[in-house]
Specification:
about 550 residues, mainly alpha, 20 helices
Length: about 550
């Protein structure tokens, strides 16, 4: 560790990396984020600014011709294990905030509607918009964290999240309530994107899913325990206390990030802007921060398949949690928010139990296939999620929905099904999230950002449609639709396991051919310019 406790040593690339850099320094390619050509790179660079091809993030001066780059183990030894554990605990707490805010208010929807003289459907629309902006914002925070690093983006968004939470608590009318809820969602998703990227920065692929499981426990336990906490608060206090509590938690996150979170990114792309003119700096900075760069990565079919799988799980989670008070209260004659809030503890306890095993199982499968093949293929990790996503969770969803619809099994059966689903989801999410980091390490933050973007757009649709759909077709048929979505997503994940490497290689091959064509065009232009210059010199002579 350097003397500054918030910065870590720059990793110097190994000899083979310098060879790659020298080989490709004259390449021109389609990623506008690459800003230095051979003519602008000093032939004797300072080691403290040396670019590396082994960085986990997209920071190399010349990209490799493949989206998958194996990173040397020594890159992950910059921090001791005890420090890594503190970072994971802090990130898990931060990731707890935005998702818990999405569901804490569910137990208080009738009270909020009464305060603003509105209806439960309108207030539930604010939750759908919350999810929508949770889906949009990763396209902003992912590229920002690549350019300016993880630490300061995390601190700034924690402070902004605090301010927006306080604004929600003090909202004098319904439009103000909607605006502050949307802004809270926009800031809060940065914790999810940056947290996953930090874990990719500091953990080896064979350890990564275990750490990811602990990190994701915050994102899943929050939505499950949020309604229970909200139910207790709204039973005895005003619903505004929910957001005062959220403000206090955001303050803890901001202080914790400032004192405990070092800069984990291997190289900040903002360092590449030094020495450029203002116009050039503005042009390059926009290319680095353009949200479209997140969407553009999804030309890889394997990323689409995994995003679909993540979306099916989030759709299932929010379509399960959102209508509990409206479905289970009448079914079991419950009369208070705290009574219905108790049902949210079932999946929450499942998430807690799954935290201890889900990530470890994903790493176990990865190590198993490394021993079997003699090398690591990122798609092997996805095998750990298939039985849970394709069989276990859909079966639980069917039993849950139809037991409520047909009124059999009492309270115990839906509670057990929710508990088992919670366990199953913690066996799926670490595998899916870690795969995004494994398969395209150079683009880690952007791939994670795109995955969160798609999954929370589906969460928004689930939150917005579940109540009208349940009223129209019943909870049984809606649960059947959710189960079918999960089975289809499991099939898509299986396709990624079988053909994902071929898909990646195919896209990389097309990108390589396009870059080579561009290089030829640049060479021809250079020859033409030389001829023109030489002709003018001859005329003067």
């Amino acid at each position: 560790m350097a003397s500054n406790t918030h910065e870590m040593k720059t990793v110097v690339s190994p000899p083979e990396t310098h060879h790659i850099q020298r080989e490709h320094q004259n390449s021109i390619y389609d990623d506008a984020a690459s800003i230095r050509t051979a003519s602008s790179i000093d032939h004797t660079p300072q080691l403290d600014h040396l670019q590396t091809q082994v960085s986990h993030t997209q920071d190399a001066p010349v990209q490799a011709y493949t989206s998958y780059v194996e990173i040397p183990d020594e890159v992950y030894d910059r921090l001791p294990n005890s420090r890594k554990m503190i970072i994971v605990a802090l990130l898990s707490f931060c990731s707890f905030l935005a998702p818990i805010s999405s569901t804490t208010i569910l137990s208080a929807i009738p009270e909020v509607a009464q305060t603003y003289h509105s209806t439960g459907t309108i207030i539930n629309l604010s939750n759908a918009l919350y999810m929508l902006f949770m889906g949009v914002s990763p396209c902003v925070w992912g590229p920002l964290s690549q350019v300016y690093g993880r630490r300061w983006i995390c601190i700034i968004t924690a402070v902004l999240f605090l301010g927006c939470s306080l604004g929600t608590a003090l909202a004098p009318n319904l439009p103000a309530y909607f605006i502050f809820r949307i802004l809270t969602a926009f800031e809060g998703t940065s914790f999810l994107t940056i947290g996953a990227s930090c874990i990719g920065d500091i953990y080896r692929p064979t350890e990564r899913a275990t750490a990811m499981g602990w990190f994701l426990s915050g994102t899943l336990i929050g939505p499950a325990f949020g309604p229970f906490i909200g139910g207790i608060i709204v039973t005895f206090k005003s619903w505004r206390v929910i957001f005062y509590l959220q403000t206090a938690l955001a303050g803890v996150a901001a202080v914790g990030a400032y004192f405990l979170l070092p800069e984990t990114i291997h190289h900040k792309k903002s360092d590449d802007l030094v020495g450029l003119s203002f116009a050039a700096k503005s042009r390059v900075l926009w290319s680095m921060l353009n949200p479209w760069r997140v969407v553009r990565l999804y030309k890889y079919p394997n990323l689409i398949m995994v995003a679909l799988a993540s979306s099916s799980l989030v759709w299932n989670m929010y379509s399960l949690l959102t209508p509990i008070r409206y479905i289970l209260n009448p079914r079991f004659n419950l009369t208070t928010p705290i009574q219905s809030g108790l049902f949210y503890l079932a999946p929450g306890c499942g998430y807690i139990l799954g935290t201890f095993f889900g990530g470890r199982y994903a790493d176990h499968i990865t190590i198993k296939y490394i021993r079997k093949r003699g090398s690591r293929i990122p798609e092997d990790r996805l095998r750990s999620a298939l039985p849970f996503m394709g069989i276990m969770i859909p079966a639980c969803m069917l039993i849950y929905g139809w037991s409520i619809e047909k009124r059999f099994g009492g309270i115990a059966l839906p509670v057990i099904m929710m508990f088992i689903q919670g366990i199953g989801q913690l066996f799926c999410f670490p595998s899916l999230n870690t795969y995004c980091l494994d398969c395209m390490g150079q683009h880690g933050a952007e791939v994670i950002a795109g995955n969160y973007m798609i999954r929370y757009l589906f969460a928004a649709m689930g939150s917005a449609t579940v109540l009208p759909a349940v009223e129209k077709i019943g909870v049984g048929w809606f649960s059947t639709i959710s189960a079918g979505f999960l089975v289809v997503s499991a099939g898509a994940t299986g396709a990624a396991v079988l053909w994902g490497k071929g898909w990646r290689d195919g896209v990389d091959k097309r990108k390589r051919a396009r870059r080579e064509r561009k290089q030829k065009d640049v060479d021809l232009e250079g020859v033409a310019e030389d001829v023109v210059v030489k002709g003018k010199e001859d005329e003067r002579v």
